[in-house]
Amino acid sequence: MIYGMGTIVPRLLNFLLLTPFYTRVLSTIAEYGVITELYSYTAFLMVFLTYGMETAFFRYANNSKNSNSAFTTSLISLSFTSFLFIIFILSFSHSIADIIRYSNNYEYIIYIGFIVAIDAVSSIPFARLRYQNKARKFAVLKIVNVLINISCNFLFFVVFPALIKKSEFSFLSAVYSADIGVGYAFISNLIASTITFILLIPDIFSIKFEFDKKLLKQMLVYAFPLLIVGTAGMINEVSDKFLLKYLLPKNVNAMKQIGIYGANYKIAVLMTIFIQMFKYAAEPFFFKQANKKNSKAIYAEVMKYFVAFGLLIFLGVTLYIDIFKHFIDARFYSGLRIVPIVLLANLFLGIFYNLSVWYKINNLTKYGAYIALFGATITIILNFIFIPKIGYMASAWATFICYFTMMISSFFLGRKFYLVKYDLKGIMIFFASALILFFIDNQIYIDNFFIAFFVKAILILIFIVIFMFKEKIKLSDIKR
Q1: Which value, to the nearest 10 degrees, does the dihedral of the CA atoms of residues 15, 19, 24, 26 take?
Q2: CA angle, 75 as apex, 106 and 367 as ends, to 5°?
Q3: 67 CB contacts (<8 Å, ≥6 apart)?
Q4: What does DSSP assign to residue 249?
Q5: How high is the pLDDT of residue 15?
Q6: What is the pTM of this model?
Q7: What pLDDT does 360 receive?
Q8: Reduced to 3 states, what is the DSSP secondary structure of residue 24?
Q9: Which stretches of the chain drop beneath a pLDDT of 50?
């Protein structure tokens, strides 16, 4: 739950404040498309610049007598590669901007480069906090990061423009320019990332630095397949955002479509938050359980409850979509139909993370790379074929099919290398129940808001009762 606070609160703040803020304060839908597209590149680059070292740190800190050596070695490695990346960005920002059609805003490339580099270096100190079970500090720093980001956005997009119109505040024109426009979204993020890194400095220098070349080699060999997994995973997750720009017909406003798709994709954020929160806590947990006799039984139980809770989120968001849709501006409502598809797709991804325990704890990460590459291939092919025909709906369905295929592939490979007896019957009952309740809700139209709210609550309660009945959980158990 504390790790959840470190993940769910920042992501919820972003969702509850920044998404409604951007979709309303930006003058056009296309401007939100710019934010959606460029942050897609950021997510991709973040995976590339961390190159699996977080997981490698957990792996070797857990097995090594000196966890500090694993920390400092991985930190030095990431610092060096991030420095090289910044040099590259500063040298070729104009060329990169030309390639991705931002010739008039090459400064966006520089902002994104610094954000990614700083966050990549910060990832190892954050991983060490998780390893040390300093979940509260982890949570506080993550929340501080988002609060600074939100505050800066509010200053740049609302406060400064309002104040600068008054003569007594004309001096603000020295530090603020309306011409920067949407660029202030990235500047705000850069300020937040920089301050967060500064707050991590005491943790970074609290131990003696050691650089172990032999350990680094072992970590890189272990991490390289994870880099492939992560890169392919980001292709699956974010490639649709920038492929839309190049594959939509010329008579379609691509940036507007990206903006609509990106805003509605955000409504599925509760599922994404749940999965990320789970992943932060589960990754070190899975490694620590690996040597216990009942580890496989634990993994099976974790999977079952993960699926049940994920389906509860699916029902909560889809049944109450008329409430959740108000977190984005009405101009974006045409994309609401992607929300159920994206929610289920992300649930499949979460199940894949659960299943991935078989290749992570047995040093078979190359299989994770194969599965992720397979998924990336599906994503790209489906987007190339169908985006020109059905637009962003193709991207939503490509995500769904990709994650479903990865989940199934991992399940069958896992049975071969590390058999975990998951409660497949129970999981299928939960899935069937949730989908039936979802379709029932879609067939019912109630004009009265309060009656509709009550009926939807009953449908969700039915799912909870089914879960409790299947798991033989009594009310007296919950009370106790």
Answers
A1: 160
A2: 85
A3: 61, 131
A4: -
A5: 66
A6: 0.76
A7: 78
A8: helix
A9: none
Distance set, CA 197 to CA 7, 12, 17 (Å): 17, 22, 23
Question: Quick check: 304 and 428 in contact, CB under 8 A?
Answer: no
- b/e 21-60 (16+ beta carbons within 10 angstroms → b): bbbeebeebbbbbbbbbbbbbbebbbbbbbbbbbbbbbbb
Average pLDDT, the chain: 86
Alpha-carbon span 107 to 185, nearest angstrom: 12
What is the rounded CA–CA span in Å between residue 454 and residue 154? 36
**29, 80, 109, 240 from 254: Cα distances, Å:** 10, 37, 20, 12
Q: Rounded CA gap, 146 and 140, in Å?
A: 10
CA torsion sign, 249 to 233 to 187 to 155?
Answer: positive
CA distances from 172 to 111, 148, 177 (A): 22, 20, 9
Q: Residue written as tokens 């993940």?
A: 7
What's the rounded Cα separation, in Å, for the pair 120 and 114? 10
pLDDT tens per residue across span 304-342: 999 999 999 999 999 999 888 888 888 889 999 999 999
- As a whole number of angstroms, the distance between CA 260 and CA 267 comes to 11
CA distance 369 to 421: 24
What is the rounded distance in angstroms from the CA atom of residue 182 to the CA atom of residue 204? 33
Task: Report whether 58 contacts 283 (CB < 8 A).
Answer: yes
- Distances from the Cα of 205 to the Cα of 65, 71, 161, 199, 211, angstroms: 20, 11, 40, 11, 14
C-alpha span between 128 and 253 (Å, rounded): 45
Q: Is 399 exposed, middle or buried (0-12, 13-18, 19+ CB in 10 A)?
A: buried
Structure token digits, residue 325: 């849709």
Burial tier of 118 (Cβ tally within 10 Å: 0-12, 13-18, 19+): buried
Q: Which tokens belong to 29?
A: 């839908």
